[in-house]
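I hope you will forgive my troubling you with a question about protein structure. I set the record out below, with my sincere thanks for your time.
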Amino acid sequence: MSFLSARRAAAGVAIALLLGLGGAQAAALQPVAIKIDNFTFSPAEITVPVGTAVTWTNGDDIPHTVVAVDKSFRSKALDTGDSFTATLAKPGTFAYFCSLHPHMTGRITVTP
Protein backbone atom coordinates (compact mmCIF):
# COMPACT_ATOMS: atom_id res chain seq x y z
CA MET A 1 0.00 0.00 0.00
CA SER A 2 1.40 3.36 -0.93
CA PHE A 3 1.64 6.28 1.48
CA LEU A 4 -1.21 8.06 -0.33
CA SER A 5 -3.46 4.98 -0.20
CA ALA A 6 -2.77 4.58 3.52
CA ARG A 7 -3.70 8.23 4.15
CA ARG A 8 -6.94 7.84 2.18
CA ALA A 9 -7.82 4.69 4.12
CA ALA A 10 -7.12 6.42 7.44
CA ALA A 11 -9.20 9.42 6.38
CA GLY A 12 -12.07 7.10 5.41
CA VAL A 13 -11.95 5.39 8.81
CA ALA A 14 -11.88 8.76 10.58
CA ILE A 15 -14.90 9.99 8.60
CA ALA A 16 -16.81 6.77 9.30
CA LEU A 17 -16.10 7.10 13.02
CA LEU A 18 -17.19 10.72 13.05
CA LEU A 19 -20.39 9.94 11.20
CA GLY A 20 -21.08 7.04 13.55
CA LEU A 21 -20.59 9.19 16.63
CA GLY A 22 -22.71 11.99 15.17
CA GLY A 23 -25.52 9.55 14.48
CA ALA A 24 -25.37 8.16 18.02
CA GLN A 25 -25.41 11.65 19.52
CA ALA A 26 -28.35 12.71 17.34
CA ALA A 27 -30.26 9.57 18.34
CA ALA A 28 -29.53 10.24 22.02
CA LEU A 29 -31.02 13.71 21.76
CA GLN A 30 -34.36 12.66 20.33
CA PRO A 31 -37.20 14.55 22.02
CA VAL A 32 -38.93 12.74 24.89
CA ALA A 33 -42.71 12.82 25.37
CA ILE A 34 -44.52 12.67 28.70
CA LYS A 35 -48.29 12.30 28.74
CA ILE A 36 -50.51 13.92 31.32
CA ASP A 37 -53.54 11.67 31.68
CA ASN A 38 -55.84 10.60 34.52
CA PHE A 39 -54.00 12.95 36.94
CA THR A 40 -50.61 11.30 36.31
CA PHE A 41 -47.42 12.01 34.40
CA SER A 42 -46.50 9.03 32.23
CA PRO A 43 -43.79 7.95 32.44
CA ALA A 44 -43.37 9.41 35.92
CA GLU A 45 -39.59 8.92 35.94
CA ILE A 46 -37.16 9.18 33.03
CA THR A 47 -33.42 9.45 32.44
CA VAL A 48 -32.16 11.55 29.51
CA PRO A 49 -28.84 13.03 28.36
CA VAL A 50 -28.05 16.74 28.70
CA GLY A 51 -29.63 18.78 25.91
CA THR A 52 -32.75 16.64 25.56
CA ALA A 53 -36.07 18.39 24.91
CA VAL A 54 -38.87 16.97 27.04
CA THR A 55 -42.46 17.68 26.02
CA TRP A 56 -45.47 17.23 28.30
CA THR A 57 -48.90 17.01 26.62
CA ASN A 58 -52.14 17.29 28.57
CA GLY A 59 -54.61 14.56 27.69
CA ASP A 60 -56.96 15.28 30.60
CA ASP A 61 -60.05 17.39 30.17
CA ILE A 62 -58.98 19.77 32.97
CA PRO A 63 -55.90 22.05 33.11
CA HIS A 64 -52.55 20.98 34.55
CA THR A 65 -49.13 22.59 34.95
CA VAL A 66 -45.56 21.31 34.95
CA VAL A 67 -43.36 22.98 37.57
CA ALA A 68 -39.81 22.02 38.57
CA VAL A 69 -39.27 21.97 42.33
CA ASP A 70 -36.02 23.94 41.81
CA LYS A 71 -37.91 26.40 39.55
CA SER A 72 -35.70 25.59 36.53
CA PHE A 73 -38.82 25.23 34.35
CA ARG A 74 -42.51 26.11 34.68
CA SER A 75 -45.40 25.84 32.26
CA LYS A 76 -48.51 27.93 32.03
CA ALA A 77 -51.78 26.11 32.69
CA LEU A 78 -52.12 23.50 29.95
CA ASP A 79 -55.63 22.91 28.64
CA THR A 80 -56.61 19.65 26.91
CA GLY A 81 -54.22 19.02 24.03
CA ASP A 82 -51.77 21.76 25.04
CA SER A 83 -48.05 21.00 25.31
CA PHE A 84 -45.05 22.41 27.14
CA THR A 85 -41.40 21.74 26.25
CA ALA A 86 -38.30 22.21 28.39
CA THR A 87 -34.77 21.55 27.15
CA LEU A 88 -32.67 20.16 29.97
CA ALA A 89 -29.27 21.80 29.69
CA LYS A 90 -27.50 20.62 32.83
CA PRO A 91 -27.03 17.28 34.59
CA GLY A 92 -28.92 16.52 37.78
CA THR A 93 -32.20 15.18 39.09
CA PHE A 94 -35.22 17.40 38.58
CA ALA A 95 -38.39 16.70 40.52
CA TYR A 96 -41.54 18.32 39.16
CA PHE A 97 -45.25 18.51 39.95
CA CYS A 98 -48.56 20.01 38.86
CA SER A 99 -49.13 23.21 40.85
CA LEU A 100 -52.90 22.77 40.49
CA HIS A 101 -52.79 19.16 41.73
CA PRO A 102 -49.63 18.79 43.86
CA HIS A 103 -50.10 15.04 44.30
CA MET A 104 -49.10 14.72 40.62
CA THR A 105 -45.33 14.32 40.59
CA GLY A 106 -42.53 13.19 38.32
CA ARG A 107 -38.75 13.10 38.13
CA ILE A 108 -36.20 13.53 35.37
CA THR A 109 -32.59 12.46 35.76
CA VAL A 110 -30.29 14.26 33.32
CA THR A 111 -26.94 12.60 32.63
CA PRO A 112 -23.81 14.28 31.28
Remarks:
- Residues 3-24 have pLDDT under 50 and may be disordered.
- The longest strand covers residues 52-58.
- The CA atoms of residues 11 and 98 lie 52 Å apart.
- The beta strands are 32-37, 40-42, 45-49, 52-58, 67-68, 83-88, 92-97, 105-111.
